[in-house]
Amino acid sequence: MKAIRLLLAGLLASALIWAADVTGKWTAELPARGGSTMTMTLNLKTDGNNLTGMIGGQRGEIQITDGKVDGDNISFSVVREFNGNQFKQNYKGKVEGDTIHFTVTMEGTNGNGRSRQFDAKRAS
Fold this sequence. Notes:
Oligomer: single chain
Radius of gyration: 17 Å
Strand order of the largest sheet: 1-2-3-5-6-7-8-9
Helix content: 10-25%
Number of helices: 1
Shape: globular
CATH architecture: Beta Barrel
Order of helices and strands: HEEEEEEEEE
CATH class: Mainly Beta
């Protein structure tokens, strides 16, 4: 019984060690209407398998919710409001060095399940 507990504790510690540390500032250039681009800033903090932080852009900053880290995969959600309607954006990312490859899927009346992909780079 004691050996099983030690084994489980070791596996848990290993999982936490291998969790991606995305703590810090990240930036992404996203396509906007009319062929222009907009800059998104992500300020993220990892604590074990938990992920917290803020996303900033043209409409100010908003806090992320439901943030998780699983190895080199991260996920979180953001609830936004536009013209009196709320919609949720679900972000899933894969960390590769100083890049996070994101897919964001939009829920709600205005989102209709649309998704798009973009890369965020760690700011120096």
